[in-house]
Design a protein that fits this description.
disordered C terminus; D-Maltodextrin-Binding Protein, domain 2; globular; 5-stranded mixed beta sheet; 12 helices; 12 strands
Length: 314
């Protein structure tokens, strides 16, 4: 049993049980990965993966325990490497952040601008995805932390801290009748074609739940993964959009107008997601504190220490 074999287990699961994809990500040959997994299973005395005709189709119940241990071990090694790098280089290194489009485009620019000025020797990497994808990046050790909205799937292995809420607005083309309706209600909104987020985003299911609770089936003409695409089609007068208010920029969205809808639709909560064993490098703490000032080093330490694994490093 060795670290490499545990990495193989994590990568196979992360790539949907596709050996070839895992081997490519690991920059190695598929037969070698398959052989190492077989050796690990032989050493353990049970099968980690379910197979049919030599093809992996899932993970066994004991394999789930192996996966959990493998994830902890590989992320612990990553944390040790971060510690080594930090001790040797001071405020140098790489900070990798998983983030959704809304955060990268509308929330983080000011934070990033100040961060780069304070830490000119830190390389900042943004990895974009939907809320579940960016949490998976943190879980696998590919990102130091994630900034995004709630996820449909739970991530019990991560520590998640609330930052702030994003209220919603109706975005419509200038001159659209919904902008002048005296009393904005769900019934009024439902009269128009709606452009909204893809189903992978909490914004979509939160908005749809409101309609469902009112017994209304809205006409969704288009779904997109980011607000900029939604606004493009709103400007073409193909519908109205129900988006977080922060995505409306009056200086850039000159052909559009926003109307507050926070009384109709619930806000989205922005959360910071971290591994319990993440090493709290000073510049990582500084970045998070500039997103949400209430999340101080003390708050982070307490949250990581209270995590089930109690493996927080600081």
């Amino acid at each position: 049993m060795n670290l490499q074999q545990l990495r193989y287990v994590v990568e196979i699961v992360r790539h949907g049980n596709h050996l070839s994809a895992a081997a490519e990500a690991l920059n190695t040959a598929q037969p070698g990965v398959s052989r190492q997994i077989q050796l690990l299973e032989l050493d353990l005395g049970f099968e980690i993966f379910q197979r049919t005709r030599n093809r992996i189709i899932g993970i066994t119940e004991p394999g789930q325990h192996v996966l959990a241990i493998a994830q902890r071990v590989t992320t612990d090694i990553a944390a040790l490497r971060s510690l080594k790098s930090d001790m040797n280089s001071g405020n140098r290194g790489t900070l990798t952040i998983g983030t959704t489009h809304t955060q990268a485009r509308y929330v983080l620019p000011g934070v990033i601008e100040g961060f780069i000025k304070r830490y000119p020797h830190v390389r900042l990497v943004l990895k974009q995805g939907d809320p579940e994808e960016i949490c998976s990046l943190v879980e696998s050790g590919e990102a130091d932390f994630a900034v995004g909205t709630e996820t449909i799937r739970a991530f019990p292995g991560l520590v998640q801290l609330p930052c702030f809420e994003l209220p919603r607005s109706i975005i419509a083309k200038k001159g659209h009748p919904i902008l002048d309706v005296p009393d904005l209600t769900i019934d009024v909104v439902s009269q128009y074609p709606i452009i909204t987020y893809d189903t992978r985003y909490s914004g979509r299911w939160k908005v749809m739940k409101v309609f469902k609770d009112h017994g209304i089936e809205p006409k969704v003409t288009l779904s997109a993964i980011d607000a900029d695409v939604c606004k493009t089609y709103v400007e073409m007068d193909l519908g109205i959009a129900i988006l977080t208010s922060v995505t409306f920029d009056p200086k850039r969205d000159t052909g559009l107008q926003a109307r507050d809808a926070s009384h109709l639709f619930p806000s989205s909560m922005i959360k910071i997601s971290l591994r319990p064993n993440v090493y709290l490098r000073p510049f990582l703490v500084d970045f998070i504190s500039n997103i949400a000032p209430q999340i101080t080093i003390s708050v982070l330490r307490a949250a990581l220490s209270a995590a089930p694994s109690r493996a927080g490093m600081y």
